[in-house]
Amino acid sequence: MAKNEPVKSIVIEDVAEQRAMQPWVDMEFFQMGRGKRVGRMASVDLAAQQVVQEKQDVAVQKLGVMPDNICTVSCCAFDPDFRFSEIQAGETDAVFLLPGNAEFDVYVPAGAQTSYISFDQNELIGHLRVLDPERWEYPPKALWAIPGVPRSALESLVRQFYEVARSHGVNGRDRAFLRQMLLHEVAGMVTSSRGQDVPAMDRLRAFRVCRAALGYVEDRLSEDVLPTITDLCLEFGVSERTLQYGFQSYVNMSPQSYLRLCRLNRVRAVLRAPTSKEITVTEVATRFGFFHMGKFAQFYRLHFGETPSITLARGLKLMA
């Protein structure tokens, strides 16, 4: 395996190897249990971000200090013996934010699987403040269990992201797009856990914003730019809660569902009128932000009553 290959999956036989695969943070690894094989580690290197899954075959302890302005969002599959610093995290269905400059002391028992994504802290907190200004005006300075975010959500995101990166590869041009996609996904995941109470005076504004947002979304998609919830909040100067209320009232769906539906319709439009005989369903789907092909195909069929491959075949036939 090439040293600088962005997508990696290796069997760990020494804790020094596990530490070496995470050079961006200065930490110590200790093997606490018996066994020749320490575990397995899979990672995607996006330069400014790291996406990591670790499965331990023996217990390990990690100690260190986070770099300045680098934070992680992480979780561990249920294990009562897992400890994240002072939190007995294995008993908590939670996702954790570890901010820059914070010390950590993690005990991971044999058999446990952990997942994390590292971020530029200023960038992540900036997005969170746009979506939920009240909660994120003063971000935590120490390890924090984010309330209301189930670990299964982060585990699924990391697993799916790794599979897409492994299957399709990651080149230099893709990295910026993938970093932004992860940033928006995690920011939305974190802020969506908050209640949706909206001040009365904001409701009329939310409705008007949604009417304007529909045109904004179509304009961005026509430029092959995938708009996000953060983009909408920034463009119209509202919080995510206000946007959620407005879309629910205006089109009876969440803004996330509306954006996904807009992207799905763009995929269909391209498949119906392909400009090249070499075009593939996967190419078009990923272009519009669908990376899990199984779920994409299911969603497409439920919405349009046919598979995307049938739509493309008909489009290619008309093109001939």
UniProtKB/TrEMBL annotation:
<feature type="domain" description="HTH araC/xylS-type">
    <location>
        <begin position="211"/>
        <end position="314"/>
    </location>
</feature>
<dbReference type="InterPro" id="IPR050204">
    <property type="entry name" value="AraC_XylS_family_regulators"/>
</dbReference>
<dbReference type="Pfam" id="PF12833">
    <property type="entry name" value="HTH_18"/>
</dbReference>
<dbReference type="GO" id="GO:0043565">
    <property type="term" value="F:sequence-specific DNA binding"/>
</dbReference>
<dbReference type="InterPro" id="IPR018060">
    <property type="entry name" value="HTH_AraC"/>
</dbReference>
<keyword id="KW-0805">Transcription regulation</keyword>
<dbReference type="GO" id="GO:0003700">
    <property type="term" value="F:DNA-binding transcription factor activity"/>
</dbReference>
<keyword id="KW-0804">Transcription</keyword>
<dbReference type="InterPro" id="IPR018062">
    <property type="entry name" value="HTH_AraC-typ_CS"/>
</dbReference>
<protein>
    <recommendedName>
        <fullName>HTH araC/xylS-type domain-containing protein</fullName>
    </recommendedName>
</protein>
<keyword id="KW-0238">DNA-binding</keyword>
